[in-house]
Structures are given as C-alpha cells and as structure tokens.
Design a protein that fits this description.
By secondary structure, the protein is an alpha/beta fold. Helices cover 40% and strands 26% of the residues. InterPro entries: ATPase_NBD (IPR043129), FtsA/MreB (IPR050696), PilM (IPR005883).
Length: 378
C-alpha cells in the first residue's frame, strides 16, 4: 500500500510546478524533534513544497516526546533522516537557534551617528552579557526612531529620554559553542546555511501580523515553555518556564502507573477533552496551571510597568497542539487567546488546510526561518 505521506508530498510537488525560483529550507532543531519546511517562490507567493517532523527521543534511546541533548553525530543523522523522509530537495537553508543559547536585550545609547554607534555597541554590550565577550557572537539592530516612539516606556525611561536624546539598540548574542555545533550538523547533512536566527524572531515572523499592539507569545516546548511579549515586532520581555509538554506526559505516567510512551499517546489522543479520562486531564493540568500562572505573572508585570494592555496571547510550539488547550487557556489568561497559524502565510492545496492548521503551531519556527530565507533570494 502506498504511504499516504509520500502521496501528499508528491501532490505538493505537482501543485508547485514551474521554475520561478529556487527551493529553500527552514530548519528548527528543538530538544524533542526536528522540523523542516521547504518553500519555493512562485509568482511572488511562498508556496509550500514539503514539510516534516522527526522525534529525537529514539536517537537517545528514549521515548517520543522526550527532550534530548544529542551529540552532533546523532543530530546530523536525524536531520538527514527527516530530509529523506520528507523528500527535501533544497540544499540552501536557514536554521533557528534555541532561545536558551542566546541573550536578547535592549540597550539605550546616546543618539549619535551610525558609524559611532557601531563602535560603541560592542563595548557597551559587555555590561549586558554575563559571559566573556569572546564566547559569543554579537549582532544588533538599531530600532528606527519612528518605531521606537511607539514602544511602551515606564516612567523612569520617559524621564531619561526627556533629559537627552537616546537611540534604542536591540542586542543579540549567541553562544559560539552552539553555532559551531549547528555548523557541524548542517555540514554533515550537505547543507549550505546562510544564516542562524534565534527562534523567537522566526516565530514572530510566522505567527504575528504587522500590528504594533503588545502581544504575548507562549511557546510550549518539550522541556521548557518560553514566554515573550512583543511590541511593534520588538521583543520587550522574555521568560523561560522550566516546564513543558514532556512534564504533562510524565505526570500522566506517574498518576496512572503507565509507561511514558503510553502516557504520551494518551496525552496526544485525549488532551484536555471532557470526553477523555478525567485522570489524564487532571495530570495535564498539573503542568498547565503552573505555565498559565507564570504567563499571567509576566503579562501583569508588563502591564504594570508600561501601563499598556497585552492585546492577545498566541500559542506556538509542539505542546500547543494539545486538544482543548485554547479553551482552557481562555479561562485562565487575562487576554485573548489564539493558536499560531504559520502555514497561512504560505500557499498549499485546499485539502491540506485543515491538517496544516492543526499542526501549524509546531512548525512556527521552521516556517519563519523559511520565510526569511525566501526574502534573501528576492
């Protein structure tokens, strides 16, 4: 019998057709899985050619859904496997960097010429980075004045800015160790990488529109949940919660005396649905209640500091595909709640719309990376 996934991939290729542009690849290497998204530009539209996900747990002798810390050899093996399974043909790609391997901060510097700022930033950056500057790779973005004036400021910031003109700089630092590891992984997979991007920027590109209102992104991963507040496309605050989707599976396993593999299946099949086993729901909520509580704390702290309401919360990440999550979150978070729909920024056959919407939150980062890669070849 023909593999239905293969049939879908074959249809996607026939759907694309033409030779308007080269195919490109977006890669998201998470702690529990690798996601890939291959796009091609056709008549100015980002067309989905193929996508795929592969669990990393088995490569570490663990269950599907478990967070791992694989060596480069195993990671490259997994990357090659998912590229083969998803029928990836592109060799030009971008790759996301885990938020935990990076640092993001906004620096306020005296307003001056760009050339002088470029000299000042690496020196001032030392005040914001808790490791030797030689251990990280720096990048920065000068926030345009017309955007900066829209950003929320607390009273202290307003007072300082009134005293003398300031330039806001978004500072980004990535651990060299992580960059070297990812370079080795992609080289072994025979890929040409043109950029490495911290995952939050990829998620913003794929999940948010052009609005300037403060928006919270809640990215539920396997081992951790990342919470960001984004305003005018700028990350204003961030927080890592040391609980994720694997904690839900482990709670089910402990409370019902089941194997972790069985618990993982129950979590995926039943989620928070009322029709499922009440014990499954209760076990999942043990983790979710903590995540919701921490997210609310970040939200309220932001609103108090800047006197601005957070417009909505957007859920992304593999843990966000949990059945019943949005309904539960709406009753727990002090703002509007939606699921990310990154594939809506691509074109694909209509019959795939439902499945792409369902799996979309898992692929937010990979889609965001692929969209940036497409912009490079315009």
């Amino acid at each position: 019998m023909e593999n239905p996934l293969t049939a879908v991939k074959d249809f996607l290729r026939s759907f694309v057709g033409g030779t308007d542009g080269d195919s490109i690849l977006g890669i998201d290497i998470g702690s529990s899985s690798i996601k890939v998204v291959q796009l091609k530009k056709k008549r100015g539209v980002a067309v989905l050619e193929t996508y795929g996900e592969l669990a990393l747990g088995p490569y570490a002798g663990m269950e599907v859904g478990r967070a791992t810390n694989l060596p480069t050899g195993k990671l490259s093996e997994a990357l090659i496997d998912i590229m083969r399974e998803a029928n990836v043909t592109a060799r030009s790609c971008g790759i996301s960097i885990p938020f935990g391997a990076s640092l993001i901060s906004i620096m306020e510097l005296p307003a001056t010429e760009k050339k002088q700022l470029a000299q000042m930033i690496p020196i001032e950056a030392r005040k914001y980075i808790p490791v030797p500057i030689t251990e990280v790779t720096l990048d920065w973005f000068i926030i345009p004045e017309n955007e900066n004036k829209y950003l929320s400021q607390d009273d202290e910031e307003k007072e300082k800015n009134a005293a003398r003109p300031k330039t806001s700089v978004l500072l980004v630092a990535i651990h060299n160790e992580t960059l070297n590891k990812y370079r080795e992984v992609t080289q072994k997979a025979n890929l040409s990488v043109s950029f490495y991007e911290i995952e939050i920027f990829s998620a913003i590109r794929a999940s948010l529109g052009q609005g300037i209102e403060p928006t919270m992104i809640i990215d539920i991963g396997a081992a951790t949940t990342k919470v960001y507040v984004v305003e005018f496309g700028i990350v204003r605050t961030s927080h890592i919660i040391n609980k994720g989707s694997q904690d839900m599976s482990l709670a089910i396993s402990r409370s019902m005396s089941l194997s972790v593999d069985h618990a993982e299946r129950l979590k995926r099949e039943q989620g928070l649905t009322e029709s499922g086993d009440a014990k499954v729901r209760e076990a999942i909520l043990l983790t979710l209640e903590y995540i919701f509580s921490e997210a609310n704390r970040v939200l309220l702290n932001y609103q108090r500091k800047y006197n601005r309401n957070v417009n909505k919360a957007v859920f992304t990440g593999g843990g966000s595909v949990l059945k019943g999550l949005v309904a539960e979150a709406k009753g727990r978070l002090s703002t509007e709640v939606i699921l990310a729909d990154p594939f809506s920024k691509t074109q694909a056959p209509a019959f795939l719309e439902k499945v792409l919407t369902e799996v979309g939150p898992e692929f937010s980062v990979a889609v965001g990376v692929a969209l940036r890669k497409l912009q490079e070849i315009e």
